[in-house]
Write a structure and sequence with these properties.
The chain has one helix and 31 strands. The protein is mainly β.
Length: 405
């Protein structure tokens, strides 16, 4: 231990210039506080004292030490300094706060008749009291899981009670705790979910009361607390989500349908109607919806994406705690390629007749939609320069080159 100075060189007797300095150190033994003091007395070399010097120490109004402290050599005219340490002085049942200490240096022989309270009869020194309480900590934990509570026991003879408070709720005593163990696992109830429908965590407070008896009726000191975080386990609290996606395009599905059923998506042509069903878990609600197919995006639970470019629909829902869940819906793909055409008009090779050659190039998807196969027909009409178009179209014979795809 290390002594801490209380005061230095306070004059106790103006005639002899007797001075006093005091330092202290402290320890706790069970419920009792103990202090001991290192006291230094000194006089200058111009004066000597032949009387016995007494020392009195009182704490909280109770005299703990009184009597002769030093017997100086009355013939020493060169001055002197004397330092001694008291025994440990017990302050019973002092559990917290401070203790009030007062010192008096006096003539214990009577010839000089000095009596000095330091610094005066009305002034005392407040010494800190070491905590007697056991303390407590708890580990962060998920709702429905264990928080591990540790009681840092101040003394092996102490008993305890444990209490739990979840922010804003009444305090609950953990009655299954036996009062003596220094560790205790407590399962956090799932009812805590209802307290945080819009948050991922809440603060918990664990409290320990310290007792000196096994019946836990005589409390020592004050309540001690520790805080910890109670969280939602996102991995097991994701919202549930399901969805339906069907093709409702008027050309593809009305009249004579082209596809086998509305679960087929014609690339770039289908209008995909969707309906998303989602639910929050453990008191959460759904905050947002999103469905995306390529560059087509909607932020509602129901609706239609037009001319969808893909058969893959990615659905994301977010609940009121910010926890998200993703669902991918994959439909049957009809990999349709839109028709394109480029025309070239050229004279025939002879250059002397009255015929021209028409050449078309482009993309033609020569496949089936499921119920109906895709077909291609080409017709044209023409006019001479300065003339008018003919009244009817001419159908051209097709010569497909490798499906034109």
């Amino acid at each position: 231990m290390t002594f801490t100075s209380l005061f230095s060189n306070v004059v106790c007797d103006t005639s002899s210039q007797l001075k006093c300095s005091v330092s202290y150190e402290s320890q706790r033994v069970g419920a009792d506080m103990q202090y001991r003091y290192q006291v230094t007395l000194s006089v200058p070399n111009t004066y000597f004292i032949g009387d016995l010097i007494g020392l009195e120490i009182s704490q909280d109004g109770v005299i703990l030490l009184s009597g002769t402290f030093y017997d100086p050599d009355g013939g020493d005219t060169n001055g002197w300094t004397y330092t001694a340490t008291t025994a440990w002085l017990n302050t019973a049942n002092k559990l917290s706060g401070t203790t009030s200490v007062r010192f008096r240096v006096y003539d214990n022989q009577g010839a000089m008749s000095y009596n000095k309270f330091i610094p005066s009869s009305t002034t005392t020194y407040a010494l800190p009291v070491l905590p007697a309480n056991s303390t407590v900590t708890a580990t962060n934990a998920f709702i429905g899981s264990d928080t591990n509570i540790t009681i840092n026991r101040y003394d092996v003879s102490y008993y305890h009670r444990l209490y739990l408070t979840v922010f804003g709720q009444p305090e609950e005593e953990l009655t299954s705790y036996n009062g003596v163990d220094t560790s205790y696992a407590h399962t956090l109830p799932t009812s805590i979910y209802t307290l945080i429908p819009n948050a991922l965590s809440i603060q918990g407070t664990v409290k320990v009361k310290t007792y000196s008896d096994s019946a836990r009726t005589v409390q020592i000191g004050t309540d001690q607390t520790g805080t910890f975080t109670i969280s939602v386990n996102q991995a097991i609290n994701k919202p549930t989500v399901s969805a339906t996606v069907v093709d409702v395009d008027a050309v593809i599905r009305s009249g004579t349908p082209l596809t086998t059923d509305n679960n087929s998506i014609v690339k770039g042509r289908s209008d995909a109607q969707f309906a998303i069903t989602a639910n929050g878990v453990n008191s959460a609600t759904i905050a947002s919806y999103q469905i995306q197919c390529g560059d087509r995006v909607a932020n509602t639970s129901t609706g239609t994406l037009t001319d969808v470019p893909s058969n893959i629909f990615v659905i994301t829902v977010v609940d009121s705690r910010g926890i998200s869940e993703t669902l991918t819906v994959t439909k049957t793909l009809i990999d349709y390629v839109p028709l394109t055409s480029n025309w070239a008009v050229e004279r025939t090779a002879t250059l002397t007749d009255n015929k021209v050659q028409l050449t078309m190039s482009g993309n033609y998807w020569a496949d089936t939609f499921g119920l109906v196969a895709n077909t291609l027909s080409i017709r044209f009409r023409y006019k001479e320069v300065g003339g008018t178009f003919s009244s009817s179209f001419h159908f051209a014979a097709l010569r497909l080159m490798a499906n034109l795809l």
